[in-house]
Amino acid sequence: MKSFIGEDFLLTTEAARRLYHEHAAKMPIFDYHCHLNPAEIYENKRFSDIGEAWLAGDHYKWRVMRACAVPEAYVTGSASYRDKFDRFAAIMPGLIGNPIYHWSHLELKRFFGIDELLSKRTADQVWECANAKLQSPAGAARALIEESNVRALCTTDDPVDDLRYHRLLAEDTHFTIRVLPTFRPEKALGIADPGYPAYLQKLGAASGVYIRTIDDVKQALVQRIEHFAQAGCRLSDHSFGSPDFTVWDESAAEEAMRKALAGEPLLDYEVSAYQSLLMDFLGEKYAVRGWVMQMHMGAIRNLNSKLYHALGPDVGGDAIGDVMPAASLAKLLDRLACRDKLPKTIVYTLNAADNDKLIATAGCFQDETTAGKIQFGSAWWFNDHYDGMTAQLRSLASIGVLSRFVGMLTDSRSFLSYPRHEYFRRILCEVIGGWIAGGMAPADYDGIGQIVENICYYNVCDYIGIDR
User: Which of 17, 106, 58, 22 lies closest to 381, judged by CA?
Assistant: First the structure.
C-alpha cells in the first residue's frame, strides 16, 4: 500500500497549501537545539543499516516498542539491528496517531524515496532500499545533514567538554554547515544528584579551579563560558522539573553545597536556594555575552527505577511532571531584569497546562533590546505532535506575538530527524491558512508568506545572531 504522505499532507485549505509550497518548503534549516554528536559529524559517521540509524539511542521508539510488549532484547538489548528493525516494523501499523508514525514515514520518503507503509510485510523491501543509501556516500552523516538543507546546528555540550570536534569542524573547509556548541551546565546545577561531588572534580580539572565553595563553582563556570565563547557558542541550555526560583537565601545555598560535598541529604529549600543563586549568576553572564538562555521545564525523570538501574538515564523512563509555578519563572526573570542583566530567553515546558501562563509571564519581560526577547519555545518532547504543535502555535498567537517566534528544532540525536522541520512547517501553514480560509486573516500571501518564512528560518538567525 502506498504511503498517505502526498504533496499536500496535513494541508486542508488552499491558503495552507499556498503558504507551505510557496514559502515554507523552500526555507533552509537552523537546528538551534539538538543532541547530535559533534564527533560523529566530524568523522562523517556511517551507519551499518536502518536499524542502527533509527533505533540506536532513540527513546521515543523504545517507549512504543515496550508498550507493544516487544522484549527488551529487541529494544536496547543484544539482538541484531535487523531483528530490532523487524520488531519495530511489525508494530508500526499499530502506532497510528503517534507522531512516530508520521515521522518515520516522512523519513522513509524524504531520505530514501520509499512510499510504502512500513509493516511486517514491507520490512524486507524497506530494509534493502534504505540500506542501499545508508551504505553509500549519500548515507553518511554529513551528506544527510546537507541533503536536509541545514545551514547551521547547535549541539548540546557539558561545560567540561574540550570542544575539540567543534574546533575541527570550524576549520574544515569541506563542510560549510556551522556546528556550534551549546553550554549546558546541568550537572553543576544538580546539587541533589549523587554524582554532584564527582562532577565538581571534573569541572575543577577542566577549569583549573579547586572547587569547595559556590564562589569556586562560579569561577569555574565563568572560565568554561569563555572556553565555549571561543568556540562560537551562542546559547546555553538548562533542564529543570518544577524549580522554585522564588527562594533567595545565600546561607541556605552555601549549606546545600556543604551538605552535598559531605554526602548529607539536602532539604528542598536548600536545593532551591542553590539553584536560584546559580541561575541568577549565569543569567547575568549570558546577558553580558549576548547569549540565549534556554530553559526546559516540566520533566520528571527516571520514574522506573528498575529500568534506570539497568540502563541508566534517557532510555524512556521520563514523563510529564507537575506544572511550573509562574511566580517561580517570573522571580528569576525579574531579578535579572531589575539589574538590566536579563538575557534573551527561550522557555519550553513539557506540561501543556503551562502554555498560556508561561506565554503571559514571558510577555511581562519583553523590551526594546530584542524583538521577541523572551520566547515561548516550540512544543517539546511529549508535545511535539500535531495537537501539541497546534496548541502551542494558537496559544502563542493569542497571548504573545506569533510573527516573532523562532520556530522549530529537532531536539534529536538522530541524523534522520530533519523531516520534523517539514512536519512543523506544514502544521504552521495549516494553522495560519485556516485563519485565512475562515476569514480571520487577510489573503495577503506576500505579507503572511514573509511571516511564515521568518518563523521557519530568519527569526532564529536574527535572534541568535548568525548570518542568514
Answer: 58
Other CB atoms within 10 Å distance of the CB of residue 264: 10
pTM, 2 dp: 0.97
Backbone φ and ψ for 252, nearest 5 degrees, come out as -70, -35
Cα separation, 424 vs 124, whole angstroms: 30
pLDDT at 323 (0 to 100): 83
- Count of Cβ atoms closer than 10 Å to residue 231 Cβ: 20
Residues 6+ apart with CB under 8 A from 389: 378, 379, 383, 423, 424, 427, 428
Q: Residue 333: its pLDDT value, please?
A: 98
Amino acid making up residue 158: D
- Find the distance separating the first CA and the last CA of the chain, reported in whole Å: 41
Closest to 316 (Cα-Cα) out of 76, 71, 53: 76
Residue 286 · residue 280 · CB < 8 Å: no
DSSP reduced 3-state for 346: strand
CB atoms within 10 A of CB 401: 13
Cα(392)–Cα(126) distance, rounded to whole angstroms? 34
Q: What are the b/e assignments for 119-130, b being 16+ CB within 10 Å?
A: eeebbeebbebb
The dihedral of CA 253, 254, 255, 261: what is its sign? positive
Which three cell numbers mark 263? Answer: 554526602
Q: What is the spatial distance between Cα 338 and Cα 336, in angstroms, rounded to a whole number?
A: 5
Q: How many residues does the chain have?
A: 468
**In 10 A of CB 303, how many CB atoms?**
11
Residues of the chain with pLDDT under 70: none
- What is the number of other CB atoms lying within 10 angstroms of the CB of residue 262? 8
Q: Three-state SS across 91-148?
A: HHHHHCCCHHHHHHHHHHHHHHCCCECCCCCCHHHHHHHHHHHHCCHHHCHHHHHHHC
- Closest by CA to 153, choosing from 30, 38, 236, is 30
Strand order in the sheet with 374-376: 182-183, 235-240, 292-297, 344-349, 374-376
Q: Which residue do the cell numbers 573547509 mark?
A: 173
User: CA separation (Å) from 459 to 239, 338, 391, 431?
Assistant: 24, 27, 20, 19
**How many helices (DSSP H) and strands (DSSP E) are in the chain?**
21, 10
